[in-house]
Every structure is written in C-alpha cells, then in structure tokens.
Write a structure and sequence with these properties.
alpha+beta; 3 domains; OB fold (Dihydrolipoamide Acetyltransferase, E2P); 9 strands; five-stranded mixed beta barrel; four-stranded antiparallel sheet; 7 helices
Length: about 325
Amino acid sequence: MFIIFETMRIKQHLFLLLLAVLSTSAFAQSKRQLERQLEVAQENIERLETEVSDIRTRLEKANESLSKALENNAAQMDANAVLTSTNTDLLNRINAEKRRTSGSDRKIDSLSRMVKLLQMDSEIIVNPKNKEDSIIAVLQPFYAARIWEDRMDYILQPKELKSAMVAHYDQYPVRTIIKPGQVTFLEADSLDVSLQKVGIGTNVIYLRKVNNAYKIDWAATHGLNGMNPTLFKETKSVEPKEFRVIASLSDTYLAPYANQKQKYWSLELNTIFPKETFNAYVLKDSDEGRAIHALLDGGKTQRIMVKLVKDHDDKTGKVATVTEFIQEDWSKK
C-alpha cells in the first residue's frame, strides 16, 4: 500500500516537473520569438529612418536647386524687364522720330506744291504792298495747304480750335488755289477797324489784324458754336446757349407760340457747322426784338449772334426762345 502510494507521489512529482520543463521551454521559445520580432521591428525602424533620411536629403537638394532656379529666373525676369523697358523706349523714340519725319515730309511737300502753284503771286506773299496784298498773302497759303495742320499758322487761337479743325477737315478735306481776282473785299459793318471781311465765291471769310499781321478768324468763318446745334435739340438744359446763326423773319408760329403772333417775332435760324434749322421767337417789345427786327426787316438775311433757350414743351427740338441779342455778324473782337 505504501509502495503504491509512494509510486503515485513520484508520478505526481514527475508530472509537475514535466509541466515545469514544458512551461519553461514554451516561455523560452516565446521569448525568443518576441526577441526576433523585436529585432525585425528594430531593423524595419532603422530601414525606415534611413529612407526618411534619404528622402530629407533629396528634398533639401531639390529645394536648393529650386531656390537657385527661382533666383536665376528672377534675375532673368529683371533682365528681361530692363530689356523690355529699353526696347519699348527705343521703339517709342523710333516711332516718334518716324512721325516727326513724316510730318516734316508732308510739310515740305505741301510747301513745294504751294511754291509751284503760287509762283505768279510770290511777290505778293514775300513783299505785300498794301492791306489787300497782306490779306491775300494769308488766304493763298491757307487754302492751298494739303494738310490741315499747315493751316494753323494762319488762324487766330490755333490751340483752342485744333479739335474743331480736325472734325471739320475730316468731313471737308478742301484744298483750293485762291487767285487775287477771286477775292472780294467787303465793306465793314461796324467801327471795328481790326476786322476785315472778304468774299470768296459764296463764302464769307473773317480776318483780324493782330500784332500788325492778319489772321483768319476761323471760328467766325465756319460759324463755330460752343454747343453742337444737333445736341442742343436734345438737351434738357434751361441755360441759354450762344449761337452763330443766319437769321431771317418767318411767318411760321409753332406751338406753344401758335397764338402769339401779336407778341412775338418769328425767326428762322440756320447754323452751318453743322447745318441745323431752328424756329426761334423773340418778344417784339424788347431790346432784342427791336434790334433783330431792324436788321431783318424787308426780307433781309443776316448773320447774327444770339443766345437761345430750347423750348422743352416742343417735341421736335426745333423751337427756341431768343434770350439775348449779342451782336450783328459772327466775329467777336
């Protein structure tokens, strides 16, 4: 019985010892696996760190290359900007010189043409003997000029009239040879001794003596107005506007003057630059009405300067009221 019991106890110890050995072996094996896994992980970390380091190195080199490229591009852009600016300046100077040369060529051509065409009157131009010669010496080169810019030396207020001359000669590129026999010297309408009017065909030319030399009053000659007559027909302004008009008495009485014949004179007013027609009315019992009627009575037609206000009740834009009679004729001293 004892032997059996002892045998069983021995077996039990052997079993426990075997379990311990197995546990130790499993633990050792597990530890070795963990250590191996740790070694692999460490190798992976080292490899990743190497890759990251390589990537960082490549990025730094790429950044350096990019920075140098940007610096080079910036330098090149600065150089291009300077070059472009220089080229633009040179081109502008070249174009300006071309324009100047072209203008000079046109003037030389124009003067050459005038010399050839006006040879028989060269004595008048070079050495005018009297007032008539002095005026013809202005008219001939003015009308013979091939380009309008050459006419500016012969007119009053050339700078102020430049834009108006551009518009006019764009529509009427006129070039004419004027001979002394074509010029009619008109009688003065006033005591203004500086003013001289001449007729060339149906045109009236106004000239004024300034600093002992005659100049053409271009604004008066062409009936220039401060406000375009066509725009006046459309204006909503109630301010009086000054106009150079060819005036005559009329029997036309439009609304709102249809029943005002006893109170108002009816006038037909025509502008020439550009051409427009107005039906204007002026009180008979007023200084303006009496002065205008005295000039136009008997069917006369006269160039006068007046101030007009558009009648806004009229839908045609042609009806106006005379608010002031400025003067007879078109040239203002």
